[in-house]
Amino acid sequence: MKDMPRIHFAHLPTPVEFLPNLTEILKGPRLFIKRDDQTGLALGGNKTRKLEFLVADAQEKQARTLITAGAIQSNHCRQTAAAAAKFGFDCILVLTSAEVKTKQSNETASQDTGTGQIFAVVPDGNLLLDQLFNAQLVWTKPEDREKVLQKTWIEAEKEGRVPYLIPYGGSNPIGAMGYVFAMKELMDQLIECPEYPDYIVFPSSSGGTQAGLSLGAEMFGYKGRVLGISVDEREAVLKERVASLANQCSQLIGEKHVFLPSDIHVNDAYLGGGYGVMGKTEQEAIQLFARYEGILLDPVYTGRAAGGLIDLIRKGFFAQDKPVLFWHTGGTPALFAQRYQSSLIPSM
Ligand SMILES: Cc1ncc(COP(=O)(O)O)c(C=O)c1O
Fold first, then answer.
1. Angle at 103 between CA 101 and CA 109, to 5 degrees
2. Domain region containing 162
3. According to the model, what pLDDT value does residue 319 have?
4. Which residues contact 325 (CB under 8 A, 6 or more apart)?
5. CB of residue 204 inside a 6 A radius of ligand 1
6. Given pLDDT bands bounded at 50, 70 and 90, which one contains residue 98?
7. Which residue's C-alpha comes closest to atom 3 of ligand 1?
8. For ligand 1, is residue 79 a contact (CB within 6 Å)?
9. Confidence at 36, pLDDT banded by 50, 70, 90
10. 159 plus 225 within the same structural domain
11. Relative to the CA of 73, which of 83, 94, 128, 186 has its CA 20 to 30 Å away?
12. Does residue 107 lie within any of the structural domains?
């Protein structure tokens, strides 16, 4: 394998823990969890591993400004802003919200997008942290994201800010490297642990996490299945995206592994009301993990994936006598976003 530039700042290896109470309550296979909510860098999460490679690449290219995009409660944006602060980059975040609207003449804006559009914003959860890390925010509607991102990049370049573009979710072949090595880390941990997981289950969205884990599984000999619970895409779209990323990542490091979409395992049965909409599935999963294991999930990603895991256990999808590992990918700050609070604690 070719060596890739990397800065080591994640808190690794993250622990693998047994979940005795959930195993008992759900009456399913023995459940384990890999704690990537504990990777460090601004409350942890899966982006820390990707950013070790992306920030190293930005440094190699002598960039001065990290630019990326995401939803209003994006964990990726929060962690990118923290990495920028830590390593002395400026940071520009292009944030999307469906609530960004055209300004009426008599309205005052709490956020002005600079394009005649406004957005009344509550600075909570990840968004509060983006601002603490001193990121510059650019607001846009989801459908204008690519256009605004491009414009932002061009302007930064014109101004001599030497921008480095980190793609949505940090999911390109460089970012995916973080999860190739995460699989190596797990395989090393399994040498000391007699309980070999038959399935690894986690939330999948922009696909970098799943691409890295899938390639890592091939490279380091993981014999079970890497199952992404889709957060926002139909199965066929996500399989295609993950296979393509895994192939690019394999090429980048001089490996010969080739993936077809049919080699990638995705379940899209838990899309619910769409991206970021918390329903009963996420609510129950968050409550069960909190009440019985003292573990915090998030409303958007891990809540949805754990909800899927719980449902699959109840349906008898997994072999009863083979352990299952839930890979926690972080996202905890979104729990503190006002929009989710009444669903989390119904009496509020
Ligand atoms: C907490 C959390 N889990 C999972 C994911 C999905 O990871 P990926 O985009 O690599 O598929 C994200 C993406 O933003 C995330 O923030």
1. 95
2. 48-170
3. 98
4. 16, 31, 32, 33, 34, 186, 197, 199, 200, 201
5. yes
6. confident
7. 329
8. no
9. very high
10. no
11. 186
12. yes
**Which of 49, 127, 301 has most ligand 1 atoms within 8 Å of its beta carbon, as the pocket-test mutant?**
301
Rounded to whole angstroms, how far apart are CA atoms 208 and 145? 20
Does residue 11 form part of some domain?
no
Same domain? 185 vs 311:
yes
Which residues touch 74 (CB under 8 Å, ≥6 apart)?
Answer: 93, 95, 126
Asked if 70 and 169 count as a contact pair (C-beta separation under 8 A), the reply is yes
Q: How far apart are the CA of 105 and the centre of ligand 1, in A?
A: 39
pLDDT at 138: 93
Give the residue among 33, 131, 46, 39 at the shortest CA–CA distance from 85: 131
Residue 175 CA, closest ligand 1 atom number: 10
Predicted TM-score of the model (pTM): 0.95
Residue pLDDT, tens place only, 155-206: 999 999 999 999 999 999 999 999 999 999 999 999 977 899 999 999 999 9
Given this model, what pLDDT does residue 344 score? 86
Whether 214 is a known active-site residue: answer no
Ligand 1 near 282 CB (within 6 A) = no
| 229 plus 319 within the same structural domain | yes
**108 CA to middle of ligand 1, Å?**
34
Residues in the chain: 348
pLDDT in tens, 210-238: 999 999 999 999 999 999 999 999 999 99
